[in-house]
Design goal:
- Helix content is 56%, strand content 14%.
- With 217 residues, it is an alpha/beta fold.
- The protein has 2 domains: 126 residues, Rossmann fold, CATH 3.40.50; 55 residues, Arc Repressor Mutant, subunit A.
- A 6-stranded parallel sheet has the order 2-1-3-4-5-6, with helices on both faces.
- Strand 5, helix 5 and strand 6 form a beta-alpha-beta unit.
- It is rod-shaped.
Length: 217
């Protein structure tokens, strides 16, 4: 059975003890070192060349994100799993961009620690289940908002009026050119603003331009 050498970097001894208790149950995992700040994590990693590092993000002297960046360049074969209490998407993004292959919340269960190690050693990214669900929900909500916007249907007449507005025509000029009443033009403009959720002509024109509904001479 191949031994997987692991370095733990965290500024709280209780976290070191907790991770050790979890990992010692698997005989293939070997804790080769401990670090209590970011600079010590870099120094020990360069000395020990571990297979996996559990790296706390918030540490003194040198924070975990900076330590990850350094080690990602100097030890590209070492897989780093960010370990933190922060479940905010911004922290996840920073850690992954810095070079972390995994992201675990500190209260994750034993199975997640094992899965994280096995996954990153296969050169794949790993996010704890709780984070995965949050990020999937975020993507779905974003897509829902996009689909909602895409589903806005404008009539041919509304598009004609948008074009006239972009040509700097006032309501009366639009009514005359389209051979409709002034009140009809005003109703169409009001409906357009309600549909597109804007309050100004500038907002109307931005939407129309972004979605290629009008052209500018």
């Amino acid at each position: 059975m191949e031994t997987i050498n692991i370095l733990i970097a965290d500024d709280h001894e209780i976290i070191h003890n907790g991770i050790e208790d979890i990992l010692r149950l698997n005989k293939s995992f070997k804790i080769v070192g401990h670090a209590f700040n970011g600079q010590e994590a870099v120094d020990k990693a360069l000395s020990l060349s571990p297979d996996v590092i559990f790296m706390d993000i918030s540490m003194p002297i040198l924070n975990g994100i900076e330590a990850i960046k350094i080690l990602n360049k100097k030890l590209p074969e070492t897989k780093i799993i960010a370990l933190t209490q922060h479940d905010d998407n911004e922290y996840v993004s920073q850690a992954l961009k810095a070079g972390a292959m995994g992201y675990l919340i500190k209260n994750s269960k034993k199975e997640e620690f094992y899965n994280a190690i096995e996954t990153v050693l296969r050169h794949k990214r790993y996010l704890s289940g709780e984070l995965s669900e949050k990020m999937i929900d975020k993507v779905l909500n974003q897509n829902s908002a996009i689909h909602e916007q895409d589903s806005i249907h404008l009539t041919r007449r509304e598009i004609d009026i948008l074009q006239k507005i972009s040509d700097d025509r006032n309501n009366q000029e639009i009514a005359d050119e389209l051979h409709i009443s002034l009140r009809t033009v005003e109703t169409h403009r009001r409906n357009l603003m309600q549909k597109l959720k804007v309050n100004t002509v500038v907002g109307l024109l931005k939407y129309a331009s972004k979605n290629n509904l009008i052209h500018f001479d």
